[in-house]
Amino acid sequence: MNNARIGVDIGGTFTDLVLFGDAGETFFTKVPSTPAKPEEAVLTGIRQITETAGVSVSKVAEVVHGTTVGSNTLLQKVGAKTGLITTKGFRDVLEIGRVRTPTMFDLSWEKAVPLIARRYRMEVDERSTADGRILKGVNEQEVIEIGRYFEAEGVESVAVCFINSYRNPENETRVLEIMREHFPDMWVTASVSVLPEIREYERTSTTAVNAYVLPSLRAYFERLENGLREIGVSAPLLISNSNGGLSSARMAQEKPVFFISSGRSAGVVGAGRLGEAAGEKDLVVFDMGGTTASASLIHKGELSRANEYEFRAGISTPSRFIKAGGYLMRVPTVDVAEVGSGAGSIARIDEGGLLHVGPLSAGADPGPVCYGIGGNSPTVTDANVVLGFLPAALAGGSMKLDIDGARAAIKRDLADPLKLSIEDAAFGIREVVNINMARTIKAVTVERGVDPRDFAILAFGGSGPVHACDLARTLGISRVIFPRSPGVFTATGMLAAKVERYFLRSLHGRLDQLPVAEVNALLKDMRADAHASLAEEGYTDDQIECSFEADLRFKGQDFEIPIALPDTVTENDRASLRASFREAYKAIYGYASDDSVEIVNIRLNAGGNSGNRLAFTAHKPEDGPADVTTRKVYFSRKDGWIDTPIHQRATFRGGAVGPLIIQSPDTTIVVPPGAKADLDAFGNVVATLA
């Protein structure tokens, strides 16, 4: 093996690594995550996987990484002490938001506290008009006084966002220069460098998030890069962004807001590549890890994407109708619904005697009770091991499970208070978490006017295959697909992604008056910027792919829908763009008016394709006799304990009828009674439910 690419996905419980060799060899490993210093698990895993593959670390050509550092920083509110410099009169934009609530009648809802405290939101007496004219410039002394105040208060990072700066960045750029000259130790983020787009709240919120997480993410990537060099890895470090593409570590350090959902989107990209190879064009992509579960949609071979999302605790859905629930980021992202229900989610009884599971997770530290490393509260993993769904050891036998400890915790905290047997209480945990996760699938199907019964579930993650068939039955889905090595599939998806860059230009006007020559000149300039940017990464012109979109809306509306734009626009494209927009609008809202249509922005997604992306190919099981044992599994209260065949994934050949369990070092696949399990040409296990 002369070259190796390594994909790394940090989860709440395990850090997954996949090594892809130049001749198609693949190896994987799972190591416990180290939440206090996430890079330690990465470095430990790289040493282990290169040793297993028999390749020197000097032969590693690329490390592709997805991280939860950004999302955890937001979730735990441990970001930098942040300040905001904004236009006079706009100090409270973060408080005002969109002037709405995510639900109308939830009296218990509490508005997310702004990441920047009001006393650190400072106003500057500057002004520019909607067409970009500077009415009042920046007073340098005023900015210096604000900087001195921030310095005295211990502010580490500053966001700068002025009204209408997306049309003319002169004043923002001047503030950036002043702050860097007089306060070089303070991180400063200007909105025009992150989101040069109309809408004051969206731009301010996105810039504030970037400033808030920038120091912690930058420090993490610096520690990781230094650690890689220390163990002998000189290869470039690429980071998976929220849109499922890859960017350099330098880009991630400068614009971390694009990487808050780093990792979770990579699995969807991998699912799209696998679906394309296997001819599966309609998939519900389901990923369940130790902390969260998420779902996304692939419809007619196309990944579902959006240009904004909100980060919040609990369920975070991509619904276009539910807003103001968290911290808004207007960045390209794979459209994913996520809920705080994972294998490590803690089960508890509330004051009313009802069973709840999540969103609080035991994570990797202290972990589920059955891990025996300090966890004391029963979790989903404890329920699954008590019911027999999981083996007595995980991660290829390296982690022995304390089944008796799990039973004792469930008995103490749940079974005895509810006057249930241990099995019934454990099964209740499983039922509740399944309902929670079914909500994520409904969020990307039913709430979009899509019938989930027309789709197959592609399930992965360390725990997704343990629950996927139950979810399918709940939703009336008849087929569930489990890829090879599903427990590390997100890391695999990163190796299937390509390097991407995003560019945006504001262009506001009526679509039927679209200035074709001006648009084509703009497209040409954006394409040139993309080629120059990707050339810095070593890509030649013939390796660069450009995809344009126009943000369109009905006149008088506030929000747009992205519509594909040709590389060169003609006069005839006005009508076709209008027709495409009305069709997309009707698909979302069920109705489209005959009002005139406006264009707001032009977007460019440019990708560098070097041809070394992981490809999914045909695969046959290993030769040799099937390795089958049995153990008792509790599939339902009606049937109780059932003697269940336990197959090893490496030698499983299909043609089996459930109940059965298929085990591998990375995960466990549960096939319920009456379901059929087969292998397809790509080595995927396909379960067909009765």
UniProtKB/TrEMBL annotation:
SUPFAM superfamilies attached to this UniProt entry: Actin-like ATPase domain (SSF53067)
Segments forming domain Acetophenone carboxylase-like C-terminal: 517-682
Domain Hydantoinase A/oxoprolinase: 203-500
GO molecular function, one term: 5-oxoprolinase (ATP-hydrolyzing) activity
GO CC, one annotated term: cytosol
A GO biological process held by the record: glutathione metabolic process
Domain Hydantoinase/oxoprolinase N-terminal per the UniProt entry, residue ranges: 5-182
Pfam short name (any one): Hydant_A_C
Protein name (Swiss-Prot/TrEMBL): Hydantoinase/oxoprolinase family protein
